[in-house]
Every structure is written in C-alpha cells, then in structure tokens.
User: Fold these one by one.
Assistant:
Number 1:
Amino acid sequence: MDEVQEKSLNFIEQIVEKNIEEGVNDGRIQTRFPPEPNGYLHIGHVKAICMDFGVAEKYNGICNLRFDDTNPVKEDVEYVDSITQDIHWLGFKWANIFYASDYFDKLYDLAIRFIKAGKAYVDEQTAEQIAEQKGTPTEPGKASPYRDRPVEENLRLFEAMQRGEIEEGKMVLRAKIDMANPNMHFRDPIMYRIITSHPHHRTGRKWNVYPMYDFAHGQSDYFEGVTHSICTLEFVVHRPLYDYFIDEMLKVSKPEEWGVPANSRPHQFEFNRLNITYTVMSKRKMLQLVKEGLVRGWDDPRMPTVCGLRRRGYTPSAIRSFIDKIGYTKVEGMIDLGLLEHTVREDLKETAPRVCAIFDPVRLVLNNYEGSETITAQNIDGIEALGTREMLFGKELWIERGDFMEDAPKDFFRLSPGGREVRLKNAYIIQATGCDKDADGNITTVYANVDLNSKSGTEGGNRKTKSTINWVECSSAVDAEARLYDRLFACEDPSAEEGDFRELLNPDSLKIVNCKVEGSLRNEMHAPVLKEGIAQENHYQFLKQGYFVVDPDTTADHLVFNRTASLKDNWKK
C-alpha cells in the first residue's frame, strides 16, 4: 500500500487491514449495527452506520442489522420500522436482520451454566441497595448477603423468576466476579432482571426475565460471527467485561454448541461519538421535546434525527459526505453545525433546480406590455444537462417589496423612479415610473416601462444592468407556505449548560412565510412519488432565498416547502 493510501485510512481501517494481514478470524470481516428500537435514529447513529457498513463494504465483508431488543418497556415495532427505513434511505444494505431476542434461549441456557459453575447468583436486594454497595472508583464495594447462596437455590430462584412467580423488581441475577475490582463494571454486574409489566414486541409473554446489555451484547456478537464490534468511546470501560463474558462462556461451553467456528472471536473497538453545536444528541432529551410538543415530532426538521434531516431536505449523499469530512478518532470533540450546512449546500448547488419564489410580494404592472408569453429558463444557469423550465410572463408580476424603493439613495441599484435600469431575470429590462400606496402609506403597486428590445437571449438582450430581480407572473403564481428553520437551540452547547435545557431553545427556530412561487411548482401539489416505499424528495433553490424541499404536509390545495439551508455559508473552513 502506498503512503498516500495509508494516510487516508482511519485508525479502525488500519486495524482491520492489520487483522486481515495477520489472518485474525481467518481474515474474515463481519460487523453489525446494533440499535435499540426505543427511538428514532439521529445523525450520531449515522456516524456508526457509516463505519459499520462502510468497513464491511470496503473489505468485502458483511454487516448485519441487529436490534438490541432486551427491554420491552421502551421498545416498539414503530422504531424497528423507522430504523430500517432510515438505513435504507441512507443507501446502506445489510446482509441479514437479527434481533437480540433471537438469542434469548441461548442466553438463558448460558445463564444457567454460569449459575451451575458458581459464576452467577440471584440477589434479592433493591436497586438502591445494590447501587450503595457498589463502592466508588477508589473504594471497594461490599458483597451482597446473597452472594454465597447455594447453586441449587440460585437455580431454583432463577427458574422461578422466568416462570413469572417472582414480582418485577424483587430479584436479579448477578455475575459473581470481584467487588473490589477497580473497574466498577466488574463489581458483580446484573445479568438478568424481571420484566412482567410489558410484553415483548416479538416474543410476547414467553419471557419474564431479560438479559442486560453487557451480558447480551458480546454473546450476540459471538453467536452471529461478528469479527469487529465497533462502538463509541463510552463503551471503552465496558470492553473488559465484554471480553470477560466471552472468556467465561468458552469455559462453560464449546464453540460448536453455539454453531460458531472454533477460531471465531469478536473484538470491540471504539471511536469518538458525534456532537454537533446548537443541538442535543440525548435520546432522552429528544423524547422530552417530542412528548411536550416543543417540536412537531421526531421528524421535525429542526431535530437531528435522520427522519428530521430528510424532511428538512438533507440528502443521503450530503450526510455521508459530512461524516466522511469529520472522520474518526479517539478524541471527543464538538463539530460546528455550519459544516453540516456547508456540506448540503455543496451537494444541492449542483443538483437543485432554480426557481423564483417571492416572500414579500408587491404587484408590478408593466405600463407598455400587453398579453403574455412563455420564457424559457435554465434549471441551473450554465448546466445545460439539467434542462430548462417554462415560465409565464405577462403584464402583471409579483416582485419582492425590498426590490423597490420610492426615494432611493445612490447606492440602491434596484427599482426606483428616476432612470435606473433593472433586468427581470431571464426576461426584459425595465425602469420604474411610480407606485400606488394604501391609506397607511404602504406601497401596493409598482409601475414600470419595459424595453421591448431587451429580452434575454435575443440580440438586444446583451445589455448589462447593475441589478437583476426575480419575479413571478401573477395569474399563474401559486400560493405557498415556506417554513424557515434555524438552529433549535440558542446556545452553542446546550448539554454543557446548567439548568433546564428546554429554556435554551431558540424562539426563532421556525418562521412561516406565505409566498408566491412560479407556476411550474404547481406540479408538486400531488401525492409524493414513492421509491421502494420511501417518498422521493424534490429539492429546489429559491433564487436569493435558499435551498428548499417539498414538505409532506403539502396537499392538492396547499403547497408547503421547508428551507434546508440558506444561501449564505458562514462555515469557517
């Protein structure tokens, strides 16, 4: 491998290539993405998705999607469906879909073996008592009074727990390890707890005991044949326990009993998680925002969820490019939201057709123009391959109120009485002659003369002006709602602030504007086109306004657009 290619590898890829070279796991590469189906994916998950699926794809391996469904209290089929849709939309394909619940029988069997080997015991203490006895990082914990109860009694009680004979919260199964271990995760961690209050979304009422993450995760990786268990840095302290449970499993059983090759062994590797300014990545906090109606739902375009980003108009290619730009390290940091916005602008500027939308309309009447005609405009100036669109042009047009000033200073180069020439984009040069006002002094109509020999694309249309303004023909214009989204929080790092994070919300994170858009967008007022069950987003650049996407709230009578990003890019490269 040459030096340039070597430098382009992130540290996980370097590990993978070394493992392949050394023949670890016979050079086989298998990863998994293991979300818990208790909420919607957010952009932090996308970083893990790109790593898990990307490594498998790059090194001719496979990546499975495995749902970590070990807590029926919080999990739901709704979340399973949303997660699969989001991963599919991002452009990734899994080899298989698995569930931790696929392994409940094996895990229960393994727990029984741990009990018989004296490596686990049933504890009747409360959660508070167990927590108190854990000790501190500098002080050893205290042994449970139930730690040395006989194996037969532990077996009897654990089986009674599974049969539903023990009340929820009354007993747990703990691993018998070391209450003085400096790694507090080794101080007799809980392996199983009782949950009888909620049925499981797949297994129903079959199980009354459910494995904890630390016991289920490594074993599930092992049963599946995972080689590289890649996760974020908060799991570094869990890695020794991850390895411990696999080691102990291999002491009480043989690989062939689980259908696993003898030389197959998963290893855990960690990278820095994603933190972005002006937002929160806590699933708990996001759920709070949704439940309290502080946002419009999980797919609110201000949310960092994948469905929220999709509804806002972010593209899979832009999101994946953003993840590629920030890279993977072992150092936690904060990423500027401006980089994400910059990335989607870079993506859309080459693909989003340009259209006119007037946000603060005032009527323009052309004194010496009669009738109407069709103006042909390029979808993106200078990119012929993206085609053209037709715009109706007539005597009465909508223009932006800010493009006219009755008493204008010398440095105002848009419409104003007094001889200034302004080009209507893709059309004619005009000069303002005056205006009408209402009783409050507000301008209601602007009047202008047209140079009929100045049409763009004709011999006389090459004359330059200092300003070009946008317009929409009145009779063909479509009334639309534009939702202008800004940052959800007013402070850069809301998670670092003391007090109630909800008080840090940006009151101006959503502004709604009623606007006039050109008639070609009337075609958007129909049911969205579906591709493999996912609505296809139609993106546009509203000239001088920003990048927009059609919102699902659009109906045959009401056209709604979300602003994906403004045109101005303030990201500090």
Number 2:
Amino acid sequence: MNLKDEFIKYFVSQGHVQIPSAPLIPENDPSVLFNTAGMQPLIPYLMGKKHPEGTRLCDYQKCVRLTDLDSIGDLTHHTFFEMLGNWSLGDYFKKESIGFSFEFLTKVLNIPVEKLAVTVFEGNEDIPRDEFAANCWKELGISEDRIAYLGVKDNFWIAGESGPCGGDTEIFYFRSNDEIPSKFDPNDDRWVEIWNNVFMEYNKAEDGTITELPQKNVDTGMGLERVVAVLEGVNDNYKTSIWKEIIAEIERVSNKTYEGNEVSMRIIADHIRTSVFISADHAGIKPSNTDQGYILRRLIRRAVRHAKKLEINTNENWMESIALEVIKKYENYYSEIKDNKEVVLEVLKNENIKFNRTLEKGLREFDKLIKNLNSDTIDKDIAFKLYDTYGFPIELTEEMASEHDLKVDAQGFKEKFKAHQELSRTASAGKFKGGLSGTGEMETKYHTATHLLNAALKIVVGDGVHQKGSNITSERMRFDFSCDHKLSDEEKQKVEELVNSWIKDDISVTMETMSKEEAVKSGAEAMFIEKYADIVNVYSIGDISKEICGGPHVKTTGKLGTFKIKKEEASSAGVRRIKAILE
C-alpha cells in the first residue's frame, strides 16, 4: 500500500481537490528559507482569499525543517519530509474533519481503535475548553480515558504573534508491543503523534484581543515518514520501505552493514535525499555561503564527512548512485526531480570535489594552528573556525588534538556554536510571519511590478527571457531571469523607461479564473507550470502582460510610484538578477 496514493484517493472521494505540492523554496517570502509545512503556501487562502480550486483541498507537500538538524542520525528525525494535508476553507469544520481522520485511520489504514488516543484544547481565559471536539471523538468510539485536555503549548496553533488561530486535536498511536494502557498519558513516549487537525476559528489582534473568524478553516498535517513507520511496525524510520533501497545502496558503496553504522548511514541517506530535493527545485539553488545555498552546502559536506567515517573513497563520485535511488523513488511524484536530474548530479559531484579540497586545506590549517599554540588547549575560536570554515565537527578537532596531546575548549565551542545555531534557526525556522504579513501594500505593489519588469525585459532583451525566481519584501524586489549576458547601461535604462511609462499610463490589472490548459492556450506565461493546480488565476495588465499567478496585485499600475533598478548582477549560470525599488 502506498500511503500518499491512499490519502489522496480517500480525500478526493470526500469531495476534495488534489493540489500540487508548492515548491520547496517559498516564493516572495523572505522570512523562511524553505516551506516547512503543508499549510504555509496556503496562508493567503486561510486568511480569506478565494482558492481557484474551491473550499476542499488535499495534497502531499515537500518540506524542509532545519530546527532538528542536529538530531539527524536518530531513529525519527529528517530534514526533508513529506506532509500529507487536507483543508477546509470555510466549508466543513470540527465534526466532519474528525470524522474524516477517524475513518481514514480505522477503515482505510485498518488501525485498531484501541491503539488510538487524542488530545484536545483545554481552554484558557479567552477561549473555552473544546468539549465539542472531545464529544465528536467519543461518538466515534474513543473513550473518555483516551482523551487528554492540554493547554496552549500543546494544543493551540497560531502563526507568529497574531493572526488566525485556534485549538487543535492531535491523534496518537500506541507504538509498542506492551499491553496498551487503559488511560492515555501524553507524556508516555510509547504514544506517538501521527496527525494534527487545527481548527482556525479565532483571530488574535496585535493588542491580544481574540475575536471569532467569519471564515472558519480546518488545516491538517500528517507526517508521511512517521506514519509509514507505524504502519510497517518499526521503531526506526530508516528501516521502512521509504528508505530500503537508499540504505541498501549506502551499504553497497561502503561495503558495510547498516547494523553498527546506523548514525552515519542515516545522516548520509537523509542529507543526500534533502540535497536532491533542494538542488532539483526550479529556484536553481547551488551550494554557496548564504541562505538556501549555505544549507545545501552544509548538508552535502556533512554527508561527505560521514562517508569518510564509513571509509568510503570520497575522491570518487560516490554520491551519484545513492542520489539515483532517491530520484527513482520520487520522480513520478515530483516532476522537477526528473527534469533536473542532471543538474542534481552535477551539484553533488562538484560540491564533493570542492569539499575534499577544503578538507585538505583544513588539515594544513590545523597543523599551522597547533604549531603557534601557546598552551595545551585549542581555544573555542580556533575550534569554531575549523568547524565554520573547513567543516570540521568538534569531534574531529578533539580526535586530532588528542593525537598531539592537546585539549579542546569544547564547552566554549558549544556556546559559540549555540549562538550561531540560534542565528541559523531564526533565519530558517521562521514563524510564517512573512506569509501572513507579507502581503501588505508595498509587497502587493512589488508583486505587480515583477510582471511589468518581466514584460519590459522581453521587449528590450528578447523573447527568450523567462522569470526564474523572485523575492519580495516591503523595501525592495529581487527578480531572476534567463539571460546570457550582463545588461548594458542602455538596456537597463530602456527597461526602466518602459516600466515607468506603463505605470504612468495607469493601466488596469484584471484577473480571470480558468483551467491551466486554457490559460496556456490564451498565451499566459507561468514560471513553473507544473506547480499550479488545474484551475488557475490569470492576471493581465492591459495587453502588456498576461501571467498565471497567485497574486496579490494592485488594481491599476498608476499606484506603483517610480520604478528604479538599483543593481543587475549574475545569479547563476545563464541567470541574471535585478534588484529594484519603487519610490
């Protein structure tokens, strides 16, 4: 049984429309590096915007979370994972949502009711205890003893400090061969959370005031890897069918067994899978020292370090066969994995070569540093430099230091590392703030300006120009486009003049909803057509621009102000980047 397919089949039979997974790299949301949950790309619709596919949706969403990066290597954590989700946008609510979850678990997946328990929101001074959800569960056969009432920390969802929010109900499975306790204790680790149904029925204002939402939504999330482990009866996620061929290939390449080498093999499997998905994304991320490129570099290099631990010859192109197993597993679900296969393999190969060189430099640097030591201890700054610049984990530094009868200030390193980690976490985890508040007046103007810039570039540079990505904040816009040369000053001036002439003409911006096929036939452009659902919104700016887009946009171009290009530079091979502002 394929859980993804069964999930979609069930919810489609219940009137939901399957929507494609959003890209891994969020568009126009600088607050997060990656989409971290299935609901994140749907925030505008949860806020009340009409979704072209209607009010009942389902999907499987690609996600990357970095908050648990240091836990990778244990039984259950992953950087990349798939989230199964179903949504009601002002359609059904608690009773139906709980009913769907219960039926899917007990009738489709055949999980015995006695192995299930739930938590519901216990309420606080602003919001009453969720007796309604508890009663729904009781009616379905979950006993009072299997229902726990928990507070805001466990059973309440809000994105950031303010916005749509509400209590949730979490479903737990008893993952153990022990006798099932009659009373559910949510602190008992044998009970594993498998599904979360969030009921967005309130809005929290910035001043803390709670009011009921006119549109009440349901947002659910089920982690695929965890549920597959439950269904297949294993405690180690990496022993499931999801990882079988990938782990087998690592065993073959290393000539070692999984047993006894679990941690390194899990890290290699996880990091190569995540690297395949990041480098396959149409945003064209390459290893670098900033943003998503930095994460990609860290993942590949950490995989290389653990390959060395397994005595794999990293001077060879050892990652390719493992990556091919990942590609084979996912290419029928995510078209970019198939389309960008060669790009992915090239990224892995090149970064492996670079890191092998860096490691050599790091070893030379280490020898130089210890010659100039005035004590018997490698201090925290040296240890962190070896980690940050050359990718040396503290364990490697300690191991090499002991060979020279030296100690390492590991505690100081850990404090410095923790501060660095907090910075990474702030940048990567986010609070969905950009998605919630990222559609203010200026962001809306910049969003429309990207369409005008795209149209102007086609006229000035040529029809071969296509958008490759964009990033918008309230202060500026960044626009990546296909182009094989640096724009001349004359080209930049022409582009600016064209955009500003269209702004001056105060042209109407209109929106039509149609099928994806109709949109393409009508001449509408789309950056990555496969990421859109079957029904799409098409925005037209007079006869200048016609694009499939999620919005938001101004009503007329005259509201944009003056368009000014601040910088034009290379982004990656064959892709240029423009940074511009509206004054």
Number 3:
Amino acid sequence: MCGIAGFAASRQGAGYLNSAEKFQRRLKDMADSLQRRGPDENGIYLTDWVGLAHARLSIIDLERGKQPMVRSAGGYEFAISYNGEIYNTKELRTNLEGKGWKFQTHSDTEVILIGYIQYGAQIAEHLNGIFTFAIADGRENALYLFRDRMGVKPLFYTCTGEEVLFASELKGLFAGGIAPKIDRQGLNEIFSIGPAKTPGCGVFLGVDEVLPGHWLRIGQEGIQNYQYWKLESRPHEDSWERTVEKTGFLLRDAVKRQMVSDVPICTFLSGGVDSSLVSSICAQELKKQGKQLTTFSFDFVDNSRYFKANAFQPSRDRPYVEQMVAYLETDHHFLECGNEDMVECLYKAVDAKDLPGMADVDASMLYFCSVVKGYNKVVLTGECADEIFGGYPWFHKPEFLKDDAFPWSPNAAPRRQLLKDSLIQELDMDGYIRFRYEESVRQTPYLKGESAEERKRREISWLNLRWFMQTLLDRMDRTSMYSGLEARVPFADHRIVEYLWNVPWEMKAKDGVVKGLLREAGRGLAPDEILFRRKSPYPKTYDPAYEGMLGKQLLEHIEQGTAPILQFIDKEKTRQFLSSPSDYGKPWFGQLMAGPQMVAYYLQMNGWMEKYHVEFV
C-alpha cells in the first residue's frame, strides 16, 4: 500500500509552473506527511494545472513500479498516483494486451493507468481490489479521484476557492496548507457518534471523503461526483446447497487472489472462525509451493490472570489459536501488549488516524502491527465477516430488532456522562444521532415483499456496511499503514458482499446457528471446534492497572487546569466517574468500548487537540 496526495485547479488557469519550486515543495511536504504509509520511496508530478504526490510501500514489481507513473497516448500525457492492490491484474492485463497495449512493468499501477486510457473512468468497474487513485488526464485537463467499492482505502479532499486538495490521510491536507478547524457538526461527529463517522464526512471543516464506490472529476466545470457501484436487492433463488457451494467458492477465490505479492505474506489468526478460514486457505496454497504460512495472534500481558468472561467476550482465544496452529502447521507467533506500550500507542493511534479513535482497540492493533512489520510487509485478516454474515448480537437479539438506533451504540447516555451540560445542550446530541440514523436508513435498498423482520435485518445490514464496517476498515488501514504494513481483507471482496447481501437470514443463520452459512461453507478448512466456536471479538485487556493508568492520566490533565479537553468535559463529573467501578459488560460503542475505553477516548481527544492545534469555530 501507499499514500497519495495532490491538488488540481477546479477552474482554468492555475499556473503552477510559474512558481514550480513552491508547488514542488508543497507536493514534497504532502508526500512526507504520508511517509509511514509508504516508507520505501516517494515521488511527485507537476504540470501547470495539477500536482500529484506519492509515498510508496513496494509490494509488486519492486524495481519498476515507481510513482507517480506517467504514460503518453494519442499525443496526451496521463499520470497516476495509486494506493492499493488489484486482485484481477492478470486478467485485465491480458485483456488490454489483446487490444494492442504494451506494458513496461509488471505492476498493477500500469494496468490501471493503461486501463484508464482505454476505458476512461469506467476502469473502476473493471477492478477487483482495494484502491484509491488519482489520474491526471492531459486529454481533458481534468483530475479524477477513485475509491474502491467497500471503502477499504481512504481518500479525503477539500475545495478551497479555485483549487481542490486530496490525500490518503487528513494530515496530507494539513501539510498542503489546510487549517484543522472543527465546527458544531464536527463536534457532533466526535462526541455523538464517534469513533464512527458519517459516510463521506471528513469531520474537519470543509473536508470530505470520497464515498466508497464513487469517483470525482475535477475540471473547468468544477467538481462532479459519480457513483459507479451500489448494492442492489433482488430475490435469492439459489438452494441451500448451492448457496453454501457458492459462498465457499467466493471465499476461497478471494483469499487466493489476495495472496498475490512479490514479498512473503502472513495472516492474523485469532482462533475464531473468520481468521481461521482465511489462514487455512493461505496455508493450503503455500503448502502447494513448499512454503509455510506465518501467523500471528494477539493478547495482553497477564490477561490469563485478569480475564473476565462476559456476554460479549465469552472465552479467551489462546486455546483455540493453539489448536488451529497445530491443525495448519504454521510458523506462529504469540504477541502480547503491555500496559505501558498500550498507553503510549493511544497517542500514536491518534497520529495514525488524525482523529480520536477506538481507544485501546486502535492502540493495541497499532502496536501489534508494528511488531508484525518486523516479519512481513503483507498480512491477510478476517475483518468484515461479522458485518456481512450477521455475526453481531444486534442481528439476532429481539431488543435490537425492535430498536430504531445505531445498534452498536443504542444508548447515548454514556456519551454524556463527562460532558459539560452547556455542550450537551448546544450540540443536541440525540437530535444529531437521530438525524444521521434516519438519513442512513432511508438509503437502504429494500426488496419489495420482504417481511417486516427481514426488512429490519436489511436495515441493520446496511448500517453495518456503511458505518460499523467502515470504522473497522479505517482502524485496520491506519494502524497497519502507520508501520508500513499492508493489511488485506478478503471478506470485503465486493463479490462476497453483493452475494451475501441478498441471502436471507434463515440461510445465513440456518437452524439458529449465527453465521451458520459461513461455517458450513468452511467445512474441511478447520476443526468443528473452531468452525462452531461461539463468537469472541478482538481481545482487550482486563488488567486493573491499565485502567488505573488511564484514570491517573485523565485526572492529572483536569487538575492541572490547562488541558484542552476541559473545554468540553466537566471536572466534577469526571472525578466521580473515575472513582466508580467500571462496567465491562455494558459497552457504549460496539462490543469492546466500555468504561475504561471512555477514559482512553478522552485522553486521545486531549492529545489530538494538543498535537493538531485544532481550532473550534
């Protein structure tokens, strides 16, 4: 993976080359800000109306895949800055060669660029992969910005007068001269619905994100936004047997395609069904080549001592990991994160995301990714299966099916516990949450004739794909790329998403078995004890010392009286909250973020405000 950035005139006559050194420096600054995404090399491209920057993590065609890549055709020049991985490169290349095109590299970058010259913006519809890319089209004097169907890769942009700036991460925009400002809407994004965010919203004032499955055209006519992919609801006509067969094929094909790399790959292996299936397919493929798969699992120092089983996290992972490692014969590494490392990484996770995030869920993942990078550059994960196959409690528990709220955050009361009364009143948090919820639900692609219960599950599925899965994809992208580690997510293959979107619940959870369809499709890839294990989410620490460290830090901040977070939180409410026992069984976001994560979230916010010098307007 890589980082991309740049700018273009949204009206005629930018004249960048009149001050070439100035704008080259600007591009270099933007590329440098994204160096963690692409530590191997960087490059820039500048014309009179557009500038592209690139920070490269070399995975495919290590020597000849440098970017921005430039090609000429028909007397015009075309340039690309690209972040991602295309998994049907071979087929596309063969197709383009059949049309007479010659290639100078083996990189997917060149295939995209030549494909654009051949097909125009419709190239996005030909791609199977995770990507964002910018193409400077000298034929039209226009800049195109593309984002993959599921939004696995990020791409932010802002329009300032006569110019559009874009970057893989928000920090790239700041390096290009944009000031980090937050208005009332941005505050609601952080306090009312964070760490999720509204699709397309960049949180900062004037900043947007290219929506998944969309491309933008920036030219003399201004900015045009086009949707090239969307989910469509249609009757599911396959039998149970055919559905299991097709699901199994799609999963195996997605994993095999995503193993493409000129450097060794590895997998995350939690001992749950999702990562076990991905790891099993990878292990089988590598064994055919006489190679052994490297796998990694995550836990926390002394978690065997402090672990507390609850409704969301019924069991520890390690016994299941050990069983799966023996089954697959992988080169396995048990990684553990200590309290000090996790607290330190809370702030690194803010640097990675440019926003407060999923607290220690982000922090620990960032730490683990930094260790994995010492072994491998590319990892395959089991992310996204629960959103697609209906693995979360809110898909099947009656209380969620009756509620009209974001199911991962059904009660806003915990969010108000520490806030100043004046802020709560000013933000109208409940109103903002309701507005965003209703706005999203109205966009659900319903199927005519569905029962009320199936219609509700389709709404929940839609919200999960648009919101919750995007939050987890953002987490995976930022925490992995912070260390220059490329994380791939086979379950987010758009073909799997399209097919499963229309599979009815009685098949997804046949005979009441949650994710029963996936488990049946995985027969032969893992022992039954793994395939039919009850879901246990990403682990977190239960060490009271960690919670104590968080509380001490936040208390020190508020007692000093100069912490920027004091603009928003109430001292007395915070003191009372820190002196009360935490309830790990009642998360305020998802399944993992309970009392301690609320404290960590505000610590992240305080660090974010200090580092970015955020201005509230």
Number 4:
Amino acid sequence: MENITPSNFIEQAIVEDIKEKGLKKIVTRFPPEPNGYTHIGHCKAICIDFLTAEKFKGYTNLRMDDTNPSKESEVYVKALMDDIKWLGFKWKNLYYASDYYDFLYNCAIDLIKQGKAYVCDLSADEISQTRGTLTEPGKECPYRNRSIEENLRLFEEMRAGKYADGEKTLRAKIDMANPNINMRDPVIYRIMHVTHYRQGDKWCIYPMYDFAHPLSDAHEGITHSLCSLEFEDHRPLYNWFVDNCRLITGVKPRQIEFARLNIAGTVISKRYFIELVDGGYVDGWDDPRLPTLAGFRRKGYTASAIKEFCTRIGVAKSNSLVQPHILEACIREELNKTALRVMAVLDPIKVVLTNYDSKKTEDVEISNNPTIEKSKKHTVKFSNELYIEREDFMEIPAPKFFRLTPNGYVRLMGAYVIKCDEVVKNKSGEIDYLKCSIVYDAKEQGIKPKGTIHWLSVKHSEKIRTRKFNSLLKEGEVYEQGMLDKIINPNSMEERVSYIEPFALKQKGNMQFVRNGYYIEDCVLSKKNDRVYLETVGLKDSK
C-alpha cells in the first residue's frame, strides 16, 4: 500500500491513516437500510466503498442496517444484493445490524453503568421541544439524573415489553448545551412492538441508527466509514459512541463524508419512490421511469455505463448538481459501439410507390454496426408500400425542413430517391397515405435531396409496441409528500403502435432503432404475440 497515489481526498486521508496508525488492511462497508430498492444515488456510495477498498487491496462488507422493522423486509434485502452483484461488485462478508442486537443492548447497558445513558419518560414531541435551537441550548430532561440502578431496571422493563410504544426511551447523557444539536442527549433506544422480519418478536426495543451504525462499524473492524455529506454533523456523535462504549476494542473507524449524488430534474428519495409505487403511479420499483437500478436495468442501462458515470462525476467535498446528460452520454457512448442497428418506424405513415411493381421485392443491406470495422450486414425487404415516420413528412414545411414534402424529394436509406406526388386524405381531413414515385434517374437529373430517412416495407414488417419516457413530475414542479395527484405528469410514458423489421425480433439486448434511439425489449411486459420495446436513451443529435 506504500506506493498508492491518492486520486481524491478520501484516498489521501486513508494514505495518512496508514502512515500514522500503521493500518495493515483497509476495510469499508456499504450499509443500506433494506426499506426500498437500490437507486442511482446509492451507486455513487457503492462505487466509492468498493473501489476505494479495492485500490488499497482491502475489502468491503455488505451490512443491512435493519434497525427499523416497521419498514424493512427480505424482499428489499434480496433486491439490494442482486443490484450490487449486477454492478459487478463482491462483498467479503454479509452482515445484518439485527444480528448485533445483543451486542448493542450490552453496549447500552455499559453506558448506563458509566452514568452516560438514562431512561427518559418524555414523549417524542416533548424531547423535540426541549432540544433547543442552533442559537439556544436545550433544557435538561427531568429524568436525566435517575440513579444507575433505576435506569438499569427501567431499561430491562422496556426490553421485557412492560411499556407501550413511545412511553419511554433510552437517551445518551452528553451535553444539552452542545452547539451541535445531535449531541444534546440523543435517543439511542425506542420501544416498537413490531415484528422484525429476521428477529421475529424477540425484541420490542430497537436501537436508533446513530447508535447502531458506529458500533456496528467498530464491531466489524471497519477502518473507514465512508458516507454522504448529510452525516457530517453526526460525526461527533459517531465518535462519541465509539469512544465511550467500553465493549469496543481494536482500531476505531474513521468517518469521512463525501458529497451525495444530486441529478438535475431527478428526485432521488426513497420516500418519493415508495409513494409512487404504493400509490400506483408507477408499475413497481422496476418501472423504467424510476431512477432505481431495477428501472435502469429494465430499460437497457448497463452496469459498466453506470459505473463510468460515477467515475466521471468524481468524489467531491461539497454538494453540487450533476446534469442528467452525463449519465445519458455514458450509456449512449457504450451502446453506439455495441448495439445492433435495425429499422423500426415508431409513428408510421404509409407511402405507396406508384411506379414500383406491387409484386416485386428487393433486398437492401443494412450494417449491423457501422462503428465496427468489417461489421456484418443483414437485409431488409423493399416493396411498393412502405412505412415512414410521420415526423419525416410535412405538408406545410417549416424552414430548413429537409425531409419529405409535397412535390419534394427525399432519399430512402440504402435505396431510392422518391418524390411526393399526392397527399391522400380521409373524410375527416386526416392523411391516409402518401402517393410517391421513385426518381430512378435522380443523379442524371441533378436531384440531390438534403434529407435521408429510414423506412420499412409494409408487407415485411411486424407490429410492436414502443414506450418512451418523460419526467414523472410536471415541468417546474417540486416533489412534496401527499401532493402527487396534483404534480404528476400524465404524459410521463408515451406508448405507440410501431413497426419493426422481422430480423430484430430474433435479437437480444440493446438495439439502435436507426434515427430514433436505443431500445430494448421489455423483459416484463413483452410476450410472443405482443412485443414491447422500451427506449433506453435517445440519439445524441436530433433529426
């Protein structure tokens, strides 16, 4: 480890600790609470935890911080584990904070015996009212000076289930005048008569996160507790518990904070996700509109692109807003190199070629991926009736519109130059189809269309459904709990009846629908006779 060159402030701190403390092994941990699915915000922490330990030839533990049984379940545990594996990371040990309940209980007993913890009878609201403000000290609890014997008895009665939820708490006795409000006699145990998904009904008192987390780190031998910036004010409390619980031995962990991931226009909040899922606003945690790893994976994002994104945004000490186009660029750059090119028309309008034999077909070759040297090709059928994109035709063309217009010319990709001779409409005045003709001698006539569009043979295409996604919230709206009915975007998902070349239906994984974007078959909704494709990301340049 002596020759490691640090690339950020976290690694610099670790190098200093190795020199000053003589650390032989660097151990980090990723400690999610299993009360929801992994989201993009977690990815930054996961990458920092695992990659930092890896760089220093150490290891990372995965620990489920399951100290709130009212919200946690085995379903979330499995989802979290699956997501970390999908990202390509391997943990050394799998732990659960709930496995440490006896140890944590004994740590609390030790604090009581030292006169550093007491049982409080105040309600949560009363505790909040006596805690003070940033400029005013708090008021001491009237139960703060109970004897050690009385506190031991009451705490044991709390564990035995004698009291109702909220009737009593155990608080650390620190300093009600401390300028850091977190140090003003924080609650470390509360009563909750709730069945734990792993411990059952063995316990009816549960440790608070600020108590369980540092002691779990120390118990596991974690050398560096890497966490997001909102825990910076909690660091003195973290250190206080590690320093004052006499059951802790060995190297004491060091907490280092980094800026959390904030993406412009993206709400990254479990509370928000839970409200969306439970309220039926989305189709579960793997809905492609959610920034969960399950949602990203379903719509075709790759683990390598997400890790590349986390690398590009770097590790910072102060919070900032990351633009979503950085994440989109990472997946787009990867898929540009790897995705198969196929023809698909998302919003079709029919073209009838009046001077092409209705019984004739031709094979047009399409490169599987033009970015790959000597890429293989496949063929697409050409006939007298075609589908083109509705947006590739304008009856009254806008300035600089270089696609098909009445009496205008356009080139069909890999095929002919055509001219629009007539717009055929139905009784409602809507366009039914376009009568066009192939200009066989376009070169001789000096006709050089500025636009090239893709197409599909009507007789040689398959019907599919395509889905494109927009923001879940209306433009300009900010998430506020309980307000989703008013701020949800009714057009967050656009579904269309589309058409695709038959060759594509036999392919797996990401594909580029030429000129439209990158798509993948939906692993949830798609069926043999009802194929559904989801947009992964659009093309860099608009048409």
